[in-house]
Amino acid sequence: MPFRPYSVTDYVEDVSPGHGALPPRARYSSSDAASLSLNGTWRFRLSGTADAEDDSFAAAEYDAGGWAEVRVPGHWVLQGHGSPIYTNHLYPFPVDPPRVPTENPTGDHRLVFDLPRDWPGPSDGGAVLRFDGVESCARVWLNGTDLGEFKGSRLPHEFAVGDLLRATGNVLAVRVHQWSAGSYLEDQDQWWLPGIFRDVTLLHRPAGSALDFFVHASYDHRRGTGTLRVDSDVDGRVTVPDLGIDIGTGDEATVPVEPWSAEIPRLYDAVLATEGERVPLRIGFRTVELSDGLIKVNGRAVLFKGVNRHEWHPERGRALDPQTMREDVLLMKRHNVNAVRTSHYPPHPAFLDLCDEYGLWVIDECDLETHGFTEQGWRGNPVDDDRWTPALLDRAARMVERDKNHPCVVVWSLGNEAGTGRGLTAMADWIHHRDPSRPVHYEGDVDCRDTDVYSRMYAGHAEVERIGRGLDGGPARRRELPFILCEYAHAMGNGPGGLADYQRLFERHDRLQGGFVWEWIDHGIAHPELGYAYGGDFGEELHDGNFVCDGLVFPDRRPSPGLVEYKKVIEPVAVAGDGADGTVRITNKYDFADLSALAFTWSYQVDGETVESGGLPVPALAPGESADVKLPQPPPGAPAGEALWTVRAVLAADAPWAPRDHLVAWGQIRVTERRVPYVAATARPVRDDGVLTLGPGTFDARTGALTAIGGVAVSAPRLDVWRATTDNDDGAAWQSDVRYGPLWRKLGLHRMRHRLDGVLADEDALTVRTRVAPAARELGLATVYRWTSDGGRLRLTVSVGPEGDWQVPLPRLGVRFGLPAADRVRWFGGGPGEAYPDTRSAAAIGRWRSTVDDLQTPYVRPQENGARVDVRWVELGGLRIEGDPEFLLTVRRWTGEHLDAAAHRTDLTPGDQVWVNLDHAQHGIGSQSCGPGPLPQYHLHAEPAEFSFVFTPAPGTV
Ligand code: GAL
Where is the Beta galactosidase small chain/ domain (predicted)? Predict the structure, then answer.
């Protein structure tokens, strides 16, 4: 007599993949077989446990009229029923596999549907009911018949339903449990979001139609030929009109073809005709192989400039619509991204169609992660427990069979962060056997026993360089394999820093075949009060805060500065030169494409103003080739000043992913140096009734504090060394290296005190001596402000001398002051976007305009942001400020302290002043929120420093 009374839901805790579903097969849509989308509004009832309700709702006569409604595809927790939970790797339930909590939110879904009038009758074949994704476990009834149940949330499941269908009044009932044995295999770092979140479709299967077929389309780069063979379980013919191919299934044809690559995604329309139906195919010929220790496609080594993509939409979660998927692909292509790892599960199938069409290399990853077992030293890990192996193999098969006909898929990945074990070996063996045409990836296989590529995440630059040089040792098999960073450059908040430094390594060492930035999009959830919600905002008892917002695009898909930086760093054309010899060196960094799709232009700028521009003839260089291209003579009569060339590579004609003139790559070449501003100290300080005047400046005579410049009242510039710590400053708790954010706070750099030591007005200067230091510490910064003027302009020179034992870098070093008002901002320097010492590749020197509001970068969790680098001068709020040397500019309507205290953007409200930071330097950004901190060359050491600013009243710039 079993003790447990819950037999009706035993399947929930069953380690098997399920019962009743059809075997996995290729995903395709036939051109003539009927199909019916069952997406739409379904009836919905939520219960707190798996067994709260019996299955009477599956019966035709059941009246669900009183139930709520949900949108399918969708997650009920995003539609007002319960709430989402975010954990990185912790299971939000006790780890006792395969048992799950009694509190198991269970959503009963019910849809009544009619068949279209022309739906074929039973004599014309069968029908299948397809679920493209249900989290995490579903049991399905059609017209009262129990079809079975399944797990494997981001994988398709089909049921044969032909003999159950009726013309009208079909009742489809689906019971979905949030937690199941499958949840142990789905511990990816993301929101837990139950529901029927991908399409539900009824497909007619005409008699004589193929169940499954496998398109083998390889490319022989030596001969320029493609070989096509389509294996199918039923006989048929395959025709490719453009290639004159007309062969039987199982037969082979070899003809000259244009190959498929992510750069030139040539697809051929084809048809597989069986007795039962015509299946349109899009065939891309390409061969992936490991040779010379490299992943080669069509005979050439590829460099992955990739991103990790979770499926995300701020309102709909992982229920993505076709436009959103297309937007992702277009955004990636427009930002020079050439590869996607589908972290950490096979994506909606339509996404792969888009990757085939627009051209992206794909690492297709299986829906598998058991990361939470790390908490107990991986004890009980399902991937090392034979009872789970059928479920693992089922997942591998559902991915491979569904996606095998996509040319974009060049690597299979077993999953993510699942430790090691026999189950993974079994998956790898099965995949190698079923599809020997693609390498197998799994980062957790550090010795590469089961895998074909050495893959790591977040390795620092020095280690990556060692690996690139082959100095990393390790097992013999691994030493022969190519290397990728399946995750690097953690794009959480401000950052990632250090991208350019990685890219230089990738380009220098053949073995390094690139990487995939973690990750594509912030998973913020649109929230009426908070803007975007993150972990903890729904009252979760366990959560990982904003670690879920670590993407290159914001939740609304606006590119973050990180994406703009990445675009520049991975641009496929290098523009270089020193300006002295009048030539520019152009290098084609594509792996496959020549430069014929690009048009080049030059422009000659003096002090940021374009004097003249024109077209630059550049030969259609082959991949890897360079040419020195002559620039025109500098325009005669160009004004004197700081001159530079800007060379741009743009699309010469409309491409499927961007219009003509879309900027692909650029570079700037300096011609003449900047002249720094000189202010002769000719004006005298004049004291009158507690007020001291020096040129346009008015000061408090007692404290030496500046109170106005011209007519503009200001709050005095003071040394500022604090920045609202970034996620990368704070670092992840598990980081073993020094995390400066917490250290800075411990030192008290966020609460520096300013002691006035002396004010001296002499012949030609006002000098104010101070010491800036935190309470409780002996270290400090001796800071001297020296003001001079030529009558019209006011020059401030700040000298900083560290005192005491400064073992830590400073967050920033500069001055901050307040303006009563400012809106428009104009500057000459780096722009248009945010940049920091190790995120500054995309900052182009020019004249830029913005508003104070638009200078802010909307990181989901507020933090230091918005700096512009290399600023020569800025005009705002009735002032013009020039730097000697160039400076970093930050302008905001709140102080750094307010920014620091905010948890969401909605916590930031404009104060009565606009705060301007003029920084001599800032500390680098790095990516220590999961990866390495800033490289040493980007540290801002506490050292003696001197820097100046020249202030001039400039009415009309508010
Ligand atoms: C990796 C993991 C990702 C994500 C990332 C941090 O370890 O594979 O899923 O958690 O770290 O954001």
Answer: 693-952
User: What is the model's pLDDT at position 7?
Assistant: 54
In terms of domains, do 529 and 432 share one? Answer: yes
Neighbours of 67 (CB within 10 A): 17
The helix/strand/coil state of 705 is coil
pTM metric for this prediction: 0.98
- Ligand 1 centroid – CA 520 distance (Å): 12
* CATH value at residue 224: 2.60.40.10
- pLDDT tens track for 256-282: 999 999 999 999 999 999 999 999 999
Q: Name the residue of 311, 342, 365, 487 to mutate for ligand 1: max ligand atoms within 8 A of Cβ.
A: 487
Q: Are residues 753 and 726 in the same domain?
A: yes
Catalytic residue among 135, 311, 465, 487: 487
* Dist. CA 811 → ligand 1 center (Å): 26
Kindly state whether residues 949 and 910 are assigned to the same domain.
Answer: yes
φ/ψ (deg, to 5) at 373: -70, -15
Average pLDDT, the chain: 96
Domain containing 150 — which CATH number?
2.60.120.260
Distance between CA atoms of residues 353 and 370, nearest Å: 29
Q: Whose CA is nearest to atom 2 of ligand 1?
A: 189
Confidence of residue 958 (pLDDT cuts 50, 70, 90): low
Which residue's alpha carbon is nearest to atom 10 within ligand 1? 189
Residue at a domain's end among 520, 536, 568 = 568
Ligand 1 centroid – CA 368 distance (Å): 13
Question: What does DSSP assign to residue 100?
Answer: -
Predicted pLDDT at 121:
83
The CATH number of whichever domain residue 564 belongs to comes to 3.20.20.80
Query: Looking at ligand 1, which residue's alpha carbon is closest to its atom 4?
Result: 189
> Which of 55, 692, 22 is CA-nearest to residue 398?
22
Domain membership of residue 3 (yes or no) is no
- My answer on whether 274 and 201 are in the same domain is no
Give me the residues paired with residue 629 across strands: 584
Does residue 716 sit in the same domain as residue 750? yes
Asked whether 416 lines ligand 1 (CB < 6 A), one says yes
* Average confidence (pLDDT) over 450-460: 98
812: its two tokens: 């920033």
Distance from the Cα of residue 588 to its chain's centroid = 25
Regarding the beta carbon of 187 and ligand 1, being less than 6 Å apart is answered no
Report the SS3 class of residue 9: helix
Token pair for residue 478? 């691994």
User: Would the CB of 189 count as within 6 Å of ligand 1?
Assistant: yes
Per the structure, the complete domain to which residue 54 belongs is given by 9-206
Q: Are residues 579 and 563 in the same domain?
A: no
Residue 189 C-alpha to ligand 1 middle, in angstroms? 6
Do 735 and 630 share a domain, yes or no? Answer: no
pLDDT over 90 at 124, yes or no: no
Structural domain tally of the chain?
A: 5
pLDDT (tens digit per residue) in 291-341: 999 999 999 999 999 999 999 999 999 999 999 999 999 999 999 999 999
Q: Which atom of ligand 1 is nearest to the CA of 547?
A: 12
What are the tens digits of pLDDT across the range 613-628? 999 999 999 999 999 9
pLDDT in the model for residue 580: 76
Could you tell which of 87, 188, 189 is best to mutate to test the pocket of ligand 1, judged by most ligand atoms within 8 Å of the CB? Answer: 189
CA of 213 to the centre of ligand 1 (A): 35
457 lines ligand 1 (CB under 6 A): yes
Kindly state the average pLDDT of the residues 468-488: 96
Q: What's the whole-number mean pLDDT along residues 346-356?
A: 98
CB-CB contact of 613 with 604 (8 Å): yes
Are 384 and 344 in the same domain?
yes
Residue 801, in any domain of the structure = yes
417 given a catalytic annotation: yes
Q: Does the residue 4 lie in any domain?
A: no
Which residue owns the Cα nearest ligand 1 atom 11? 930
Q: What is the atom index within ligand 1 of the atom nearest the CA of 443? A: 8
487 has catalytic annotation: yes
Q: Would you say residue 679 lies in a domain?
A: no
Question: For residue 5, is pLDDT > 50?
Answer: no
- Beta strands per DSSP E along 834-957: 844-851, 868-876, 879-892, 914-922, 945-953
DSSP secondary structure letters along 804-840:
S---S--SEEEEEEEES---EEEEEEEESS---TTS-
